[in-house]
Amino acid sequence: MTNVGPSWTPDQLHSDPHANPEKATRVQSMFSAIAPSYDLNNRIHSFGLDQSWRKRTVREVRARLGSLRDKNILDVACGTGDLTELFYKAGANTTGGDYTPAMLEIAEIKSRKLNNSSDRIRYVNADATKLAFDNASFDVVTIAFGLRNVSSPDQAIAEFFRVLRPGGVLAILEFDQPQSKFVRFFHNLYTERIMPFTATLIARDRSGAYKYLPRSVATFLSPQGIAQFAAASGFEHIQHYSLTFGTCALTLATRPLV
Predict the structure, then answer these.
(1) Exposure string (b/e) for 186-218, b if CB count within 10 Å is 16 or more?
(2) Among 128, 66, 71, 69, residue whose Cα is nearest residue 97
(3) Architecture, CATH, for domain 48-176+222-258
(4) Cα dihedral 38, 43, 47, 48 sign
(5) If you ran DSSP here, which 8-state letter would residue 238 be given?
(6) Which of 103, 143, 200, 204 could hold 76 in an S-S bridge, CB 3.0 to 4.6 Å?
(7) Is the model's pTM score more than 0.70?
(8) Residue 71 three-state SS
(9) Domains in the chain: boundaries
(10) Given a cut of 80, is residue 209 above it in pLDDT?
(11) Which residues pair with 143 in a beta bridge?
């Protein structure tokens, strides 16, 4: 599937894409265009590390809660459902929500192929900044590589707080910039030069998705910035884990019991 035109032009990416007033619709259009090749590109261009990062997320959430069995999990910006499926396999009742219907279609196809129990896993259309769930509905809210794609990250984190039960856990997995100058040089060479070219070829993409990716990471909040938004929303026990030489960061936080 390809777009009839670009979601992101070079001029738009030269400035801060997060400040673009049409960011939400452009991101949706972009993910609609790359949905069929999304998983393949993730595996190839992360060298399979994207799945190890998700598995680490599940382990750290389980460590905070003690067990995931029968816990209610909301995976926001779930994409094709990789993290949603991992929580399901861990025994949780999982809801994957995404803003892009094309991604949800693939997630549902994958779920059916795995013969998942329909009463413990579901996929729904969801806007991270306006979640259609009751207060205190979930034990865990996660978002992997999606916070930088929402129009208002602070509003999204406030929504995560609202739908979490007291004592519930928030997990935010997001790309980061390595602190080491040596690592950062090769990381930026790969993400800004090599990956956009090869990923675009694989996806046959005209949306600008894989040029948006490195630009959206470079101009997005640091883990410390994410922590500030989480604290402002009321979260406590905020902790960071730097993964794979600082190319990725996992932020965990807990909604207070009272």
Answers:
(1) ebeeebeeebbeebbeebebebbbbbbbbbbbe
(2) 128
(3) 3-Layer(aba) Sandwich (3.40)
(4) positive
(5) E
(6) 143
(7) yes
(8) coil
(9) 1-45+184-219, 48-176+222-258
(10) yes
(11) 76, 172
